[in-house]
Every structure is written in structure tokens, then in C-alpha cells.
Write a structure and sequence with these properties.
- The chain is of the alpha/beta class and 421 residues long.
- Among the domains are: 95 residues, Alpha-helical ferredoxin (Fumarate Reductase Iron-sulfur Protein, Chain B, domain 2, Orthogonal Bundle); 108 residues, 3-Layer(aba) Sandwich (Rossmann fold).
- Helices cover 53% and strands 7% of the residues.
- It has 23 helices and eight strands.
- The protein has a four-stranded parallel beta sheet with strand order 2-1-3-4. The protein has a four-stranded parallel beta sheet with strand order 6-5-7-8, with helices on both faces.
- Strand 7, helix 22 and strand 8 form a beta-alpha-beta unit.
- It binds iron/sulfur cluster (2 copies).
């Protein structure tokens, strides 16, 4: 045994219980599109064990198969000993990064996340370059990666919010809203819809003056000092505002905010604050259905067929599956239809579709086909990263469907002139 990383060693011993039953072959999206043994949990376990035991060095094969795990956790649900393959692969990846350093691509992603406003400039520059036709000068691989980004909206959520005058009015509850970088830059309509539905309930909503990073990309990359710096800034802002709840419309951010309790569990100064903060965190759909009691507006959305894609973070990390469906079924005038394999990963997986565009595209092709089988007008998902991926699928595979966060559809039932969706 060559490694001293305790977490990696613990996961290594847990993986000892793999009975090689092959059940993971039935649910793994990377296996579904490649049909290769190292692309399932069983194969990844074998590779990780070879690496930990020092039988396999740092090879491109190890990196390819290990890093292409989506972290979707689908295998855990069917695995008899419930092996945490996603966490094992993530620890192996971090160990490799610790030795080789971050790739240029990872550095760029971390840099963009450290300054979430810069994400907006990146998307804007890409769009301008597309319109001027200069993207064709980029290498093919890079062009392929950038194709996922849709046309950016005219303004960011934060720019729009600064123009609103009513956000500080008193309400029966005070709720903090954490928008996240994708909502801010690509899907500001989601943030507007969150404010709209909370306002309809007489709730005072506060949001930070500039978009904050939840710290997840840095935590996943092993940059714990940086991720804690973001956590402290986020907790300081919302706890300082005395909010009753903190809601998110991005489940990756939502999961990350709840993880602060784990991040600071050994910190005598921050532990109590982090636990108190994590207790207040809710996904917006969870809050609207479980805490507030679902309230739907009177405006009908006639003739619309809606289906739903389960984001892995919302479904498997946060356990939220029934609430979004309850919301969609309750939309007046709309028809809800369940798509096949709704809980299969769409290939977005944070920055996965950017780092592994070939595999992500194959996974997306199957997801789009599943969605199109029920001919929806709208595919709803509670995650901006999934929405970006599904929207890309609709564009390139002629899906002819729109993509929306459930809260956007709910906002439309309160105001038929609501045209931000
Ligand atoms: S389902 Fe679990 S126990 Fe069975 S082969 Fe896959 S990882 Fe091993
Ligand atoms: S976490 Fe997802 S991608 Fe990774 S091995 Fe399990 S099912 Fe496959």
C-alpha cells in the first residue's frame, strides 16, 4: 500500500466488498454508451485498487477511465454492498492531481469559479466570436467544447437585481437566495422566477450584492483553503442578514452549502455557525413544496406537455424527486408525462460535458431521445447545468423542446405576461 490519504484508504477497503455481480452494468451511463468494462463501477474499482496497491502508475488509461466517472451515484442504488465508487474515483483523481498538479483546463475552470463574474465575460466573448465567425479558427476540440454554451441573455441576474427597488421590503419571513454562477450568467430567468414566487407569498428576499461561489469546484479539486474562503463569505453574508432560510435553485450549490457543516466539523470557531447555516439551506422546489405548502397561481399554461429530468444532485445527493413532480403535475392547463429513464444522468455533471465532450455527447444523445419519445414542449429540470446540457441536446438533435426550471413554470401561473421563459 503506497498511499497515506486516509479517505482513499478507507474507500479502498470498502471496495473490497465488490462481489463482481455486474449489477452496475444496468445503470451506468458511461457503460451504456461505451460498453467497456473499465467504464462501469466494477472496472473503476479494479483500476483504483491497482493504483492504490502500486501495481499501476499514473497512466493516461487510468486517468481516462477514472476521471470519466460522472459521479452520478446510479451504481450505488443497485450495488449490494453500496460501494461509493463515485467518491473512490474522486479521491483517486485528487491524488493524481496532487502529484501532477492541475491541468490548464482545470486551472481555467477554478479561476473562472473564483471570480464568478468572469464567467459572464467568457460566455459573452464566445457569443461575439460566434457571431463574427472567428470561432472556426479555434482548434476542433475547443470548438466542440464551447458549442454547449447558449446565446447569453441581455443581462445577468445580478445586473437585473440591482435595478429592482422592492427587494428590501419587509415580509412575514426573510429568505436568503443564493443564485450561483450559471443562474447569474446564463439563466437569469430562474433567479427572477424565484423572487417572483417568493414575493407572491409575502416573503422578504435578500441576495448577496455580488454573485458568490459555493466552493464546490475548489473542494472537488482539493483546494480546501479556497473553498473554505468562499464558505466563510457565504455564511457571513446570510447569517449576518438574519435569514430564516437560504434557498438555492442550483442543487450542486445547494449540496455544497449543506456540506459546510462537514467542512468545518473539526473547527472549534466555525463548527456551530456552519451547522446552523446548513440547517437553514433548502432547494427552492423543496422549500416551495415541503416548507411553504405548494401554492400555484390561477393562470393556465394550456396545451403544454411537460416532462421532467432528474438532476443527479437533486435526486441522489439531496433526495428530492417527488417535490418537482408534484409541482409540475399541479400546473394548471399543462399535461405532465414521465419520460423513460428520467433519473439517468444527462452528461452535464458540473464541468464534465466540457472536460469529456465526446462521452457527454453520447450520453446526451440518449437522454434527448428518451425525452423526445414523449414529444414534450418543455423539458423541466431543477439544475441549471442540466438545463444547459438539455438545451444543447434540443439544438443539435432537433429536439424542438424548450428547457425550463420548474420554478419558472410556476412563476408563469401567477402572471400570464411573465415572458422570461
Ligand atoms: S454492483 Fe457493486 S458489487 Fe456488483 S459488480 Fe458493481 S460495484 Fe461490484
Ligand atoms: S457514479 Fe455513475 S458514472 Fe460513475 S461508475 Fe457509478 S454509475 Fe457509472
Amino acid at each position: 500500500m503506497l498511499h497515506t490519504n486516509k479517505r482513499l484508504i478507507d474507500l479502498y477497503f470498502q471496495s473490497d466488498s465488490c462481489v463482481r455481480c455486474g449489477r452496475c452494468t444496468t445503470v451506468c451511463p458511461t457503460y451504456r454508451v461505451t460498453r467497456r468494462e473499465p467504464m462501469i463501477a466494477r472496472g473503476r474499482i479494479w483500476l483504483a485498487r491497482q493504483f492504490v496497491e502500486g501495481r499501476m502508475g499514473l497512466s493516461s488509461t487510468l486517468k481516462l477511465y477514472n476521471d470519466s466517472c460522472l459521479g452520478c451515484q446510479a451504481c450505488r442504488a443497485v450495488c449490494p454492498p453500496k460501494i461509493k465508487v463515485d467518491e473512490l474515483a474522486a479521491e483517486v483523481k485528487q491524488t493524481i492531481q496532487g502529484r501532477l498538479g492541475h491541468t490548464l483546463e482545470d486551472k481555467m475552470i477554478l479561476k473562472a469559479c473564483s471570480h464568478p463574474q468572469s464567467f459572464r465575460y467568457l460566455v459573452g466573448t464566445l457569443d461575439m466570436s460566434r457571431r463574427m465567425g472567428t470561432t472556426r479558427l479555434l482548434p476542433k476540440k475547443l470548438r466542440q467544447k464551447f458549442r454547449i454554451f447558449p446565446q447569453p441573455p441581455p443581462s445577468t441576474f445580478m445586473d437585473w437585481l440591482k435595478l429592482q427597488k422592492t427587494r428590501d421590503t419587509a415580509g412575514r419571513l426573510k429568505i436568503g437566495y443564493f443564485p450561483g454562477c450559471l443562474t447569474n450568467s446564463i439563466f437569469p430567468g430562474i433567479g427572477m422566477a424565484v423572487l417572483e414566487v417568493l414575493k407572491r407569498q409575502g416573503i422578504q428576499v435578500v441576495a448577496p450584492p455580488a454573485v458568490l461561489c459555493c466552493g464546490q469546484p475548489h473542494r472537488a479539486a482539493g483546494e480546501l483553503t479556497e473553498s473554505r474562503r468562499f464558505a466563510v463569505a457565504t455564511m457571513n453574508f446570510f447569517l449576518g442578514q438574519g435569514v430564516d432560510f437560504v434557498v438555492t435553485s442550483c442543487p450542486a450549490c445547494g449540496y455544497s452549502l449543506r456540506e459546510y457543516a462537514t467542512d468545518f466539523r473539526d473547527d472549534p470557531i466555525w463548527r456551530e455557525r456552519a451547522e446552523r447555516f446548513a440547517d437553514k439551506c433548502r432547494d427552492i422546489i423543496e422549500y416551495l413544496v415541503d416548507d411553504a405548502g405548494l401554492s400555484v397561481g390561477p393562470e393556465a399554461l394550456p396545451g403544454i406537455t411537460v416532462t421532467y429530468h432528474d438532476s443527479c444532485h437533486l435526486n441522489r445527493h439531496l433526495g428530492i424527486t417527488a417535490q418537482p413532480r408534484a409541482l409540475l403535475v399541479a400546473l394548471p392547463g399543462a399535461r405532465y408525462a414521465e419520460m423513460p429513464r428520467a433519473d439517468w444522468c444527462c452528461g452535464a455533471a458540473g464541468s464534465y460535458s466540457f472536460k469529456h465532450p465526446d462521452i457527454a455527447l453520447k450520453i446526451l444523445a440518449q437522454k434527448t431521445e428518451d425525452a423526445m419519445s414523449i414529444r414534450p414542449h418543455v423539458v423541466a429540470a431543477g439544475c441549471p447545468s442540466c438545463l444547459m446540457q438539455l438545451g444543447y441536446g434540443s439544438r443539435i438533435f432537433d429536439g424542438n423542446f424548450d428547457v425550463r426550471h420548474p420554478v419558472e413554470l410556476l412563476a408563469a401561473t401567477f402572471d400570464h405576461t411573465w415572458n422570461r421563459w
